[in-house]
Please model this.
Amino acid sequence: MNAHPAQAQRPGRPSAERRASAPRLTAGWQATGRAAVLREHVDRYGPLPRRGAGGRGRGGLTEAVFKAGLTGRGGAGFPTGTKMRAVTSRRGPAVVVANGVESEPASEKDQALLSRAPHLVLDGAVLAAEAVRADVVHLCLPRASGWLTELMLGAVEERRQAQLDSVPIHVHGLPRHYVSSEETSLVRWLNGGEAKPVATPPRPSERGVGKRPTLVDNVETLAHVALIARYGPAWFRRAGLPEAPGTMLITVSGAVEGPGVYEVDLGTLIGDALIMSGISGQASSVLIGGYFGTWHDLRAVAGLPLTAAGLLHVGASPGAGVLFALPPGACGLAETARVLAYLADEGAGQCGPCAFGLPAIADDFAQLAAGRPQGPVLGRLERRFGTVAGRGACRHPDGAIRMAASALAAFAADVHAHVSHRPCVSTRRGHPPPAVLPIPRPWSEGEWY
Amino acid sequence: MVLTVSLSVDPTACTGHGLCADLLPELVELDEWGYPIVLSPDVPPELAAHARRAVRLCPTLALRLRSISGSAAARHRWA
Model:
């Protein structure tokens, strides 16, 4: 996967821009397939609201975002207005951090948004900064994507020349580890430390960058903030469900004809999102939410809406909007084993239960996937799930265990065969099934600064 | 007023010495890699002195006691 902007224009590749209803964030992507320059951006969305107007400045925007019911689009789904209020309630100047690190390998929506609508994200970051009385914006990007950093530096320079913003915007490239996009990791890195999670409390909203109250929001969340500032909360609520308003970007991949990033209303049914992407009729399982997500039988979830509340009873959550349809012929247990090995490697190594527990769980799963279980592997896995979950400073072990446990349930028939020393084999006799989920190459071992 | 205190481990500070499980086996056991699992965060009054001792002797200061109410005065009294 890992779309480069050039790929969007490559003939024959399915368009990366689709939608289920009126486009918001993605309006205009199809027209150009490249980053909107400032003039195009203002032509499309209109200028920033006047300072002091309802949608701008102290108090006004925070309350508008609260009324809009916007929730974070980075994965946790926390109400953005509540977060802004928490930062505003603290004393002293605040800091805004725009999180575009997107370390989730199966997601490319933040990169797609930044590379097509950079000014929408920057508008949102600057407006949020004014609302929470911040005097600086830090935009955090994956260091591995140098082209994205260049593109965003260009957009920031355009705004500087137009004297558009009341606060400076600093662009940073962070190491690409799975745990480095966690909000406490960003704060720690911006404070000169390693891009590793820190135990909370205090939350960044209480004590973040430079010990100041810090608003950390995903870049897509900030793009929605920019639109709420312009058009208001009532407009925002015209898309999505009353209890889950707005649109969201999703990344669909796997056994689909049109893999890529789509903008859909919250509440879009999982089946509809997959059909829109051209899912293969033979796919029978889907991964929802990314590598901290959960595997499901497609028939059990196709009719469920892609919202936190709608997926709660099947133990799933939309995460950062990742849907992966397992191709027929691939083995869900082998895929899970690959992801667990990756997540075990990607831990920060700060907490014993995670540093020792995840490699042990990944090894158990590798035995299971290969059909070579040593001893009672299922009992051992269940016990290790129970003892490791909830004992890290961050959600890394919990997320990995959640995925592992969901695989045992969703692929129960395969589990039975694998523990009986009958692993999946592809149609070409004796060959292991194809590896399909993207696993990034290890990011320079040990580099956390 | 009965003060309720809560026992916890800072997982980033803990390096698995295991002293806490020796000093406070009623509330702490070790996992298969030697890291403490707090069986119950609530410390009954009869174990309060043992808990305070375990907190004081933790080589990495990873074992913590804090009052549920979280007031600084209560923390000082207990830890």
About this structure: The longest strand of chain A covers residues 134-142. Confidence is low (pLDDT under 50) at residues 1-20 of chain A. Chain A has three domains: 20-236, 247-325, 332-419. Chain A touches chain B at residues 198-199, 350-354, 356-357, 360, 387-388, 391-393 (CB under 8 Å).
